[in-house]
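call fold(seq) -> tokens
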Amino acid sequence: MTLLAVPATLSAQRGGASPASTKSAQSVESRSAALATELTKLLSAQNLDSIATVEAEMQYVGALYIPGSQLLVVRAKVPSKDRLSYLLYNKMYKDAYADLNSASDAATRVLIADLGANGLQFKQAKDQPFDMVQIAGKSVAYDGKWGGKDNPSKDEYAKSYESSDEQYTQMLEVLIAALKKSS
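ret:
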């Protein structure tokens, strides 16, 4: 399993690997949780189940919300901005989300499957689904399994989670700003 890299500064901010600051799995907090809740409330208030917006030149972020179930968020670059510009202009957000999820540059695609619509969780709660992240075609399941032959070490898992949660947080901030601007 290939894990996603995390900048050293994030690791240091979260306590790094020093024995004095090692955190238990239960104490890792989701930075994206409050933002996921805010985004789902904004979508519901505006009677939307999807949103998409431009983030940077040729790069877009989109979300599909299934109330009470999941929040799917994607960021990717597209080969041509014409179609996405048309979809956004006409507020065809679900189509824009679909294009980002399928017709975008796979090497730049980040897909977050927040299966509780409650932010990226470090590990699954009892009897609950676990969150998944796919970055440039590589998938990671945040199911709380580390160590052993087929799983990453606990430190690799934690670094991957922190990097993914940071990216998810940034994506949610862009979407929230777009929704607030349009309301």
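The helical segments are 8-13, 33-45, 81-89, 93-102, 154-182.
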